[in-house]
Structure to design on (249 residues):
């Protein structure tokens, strides 16, 4: 083989490698934009349902697509394409209305037209109290972030969706609120960790439909102690095997 042939072969091999990388990047972009987006839990606002260190897949097609379905949210269009309403009780990733560069994750408790209010720690929807049953106490600090037992309740929404909430104190700032009337095209979001959640009761406010990114579906990895999944040497002590491949309720 001549020197020219060897050079041509090396050049062709490099070109093929670049082509494969570009195709892989395009495929990853398509999957992230239209199908699934990975998301890590940044705070304790959804405890006990979701813990810091949980890594989720969020389905992008669940509610249709908006500009926030695309990386960096380019202002290419407004509203949603192939829009579908979230159901009450869905756990949703959305863009923080005052600053859409920030992702939040909360539970949908109020749909357009609903009246939402907290009274003595009980959620009221359209003047009807949501069914709330005390299950007992959780003592695991990995779940509660507290060094003491914490009360846990099971709420069941009018459509039958049921989930657990934490009650850190009987005098939480969000335990008694004014009545909120959810505007058309907006949703009312709350965290399951009721006394430690910045949600629609506070700074988040009503969330426009356009800001919805997708529905949280499954936990594909979970690690405690603030560890990174890349810190393989911490897996034996910090990985939470019981949470991996769990569906998000």
């Amino acid at each position: 083989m001549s020197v020219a042939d060897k050079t041509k072969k090396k050049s062709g091999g490099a070109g093929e490698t670049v082509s494969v990388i570009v195709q892989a990047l395009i495929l990853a972009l398509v999957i992230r934009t239209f199908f699934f987006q990975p998301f890590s839990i940044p705070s304790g606002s959804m405890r006990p349902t979701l813990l810091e260190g949980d890594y989720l897949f969020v389905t992008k097609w669940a509610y249709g697509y908006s500009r926030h379905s695309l990386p960096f949210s380019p202002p290419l269009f407004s509203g949603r394409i192939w829009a579908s309403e979230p159901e009450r009780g869905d756990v949703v990733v959305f863009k923080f209305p005052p600053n859409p560069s920030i992702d939040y994750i909360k539970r949908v408790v109020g749909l357009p037209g609903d009246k939402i209010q907290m009274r003595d720690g009980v959620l009221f929807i359209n003047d009807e109290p949501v069914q709330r049953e005390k299950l007992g106490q959780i003592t695991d600090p990995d779940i509660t972030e507290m060094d003491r037992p914490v009360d846990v309740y099971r709420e069941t929404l009018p459509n039958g969706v049921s989930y657990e909430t934490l009650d850190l104190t009987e005098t939480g700032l969000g335990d008694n609120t004014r009545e909120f009337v959810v505007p058309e095209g907006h949703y009312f979001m709350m965290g399951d960790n009721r006394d430690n959640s910045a949600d629609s009761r506070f700074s988040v406010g009503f969330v426009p439909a356009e800001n919805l990114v997708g529905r949280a579906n499954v936990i594909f990895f979970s690690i405690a102690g603030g560890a990174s999944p890349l810190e393989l040497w911490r897996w034996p002590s910090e990985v939470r095997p019981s949470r991996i491949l769990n569906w998000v309720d």
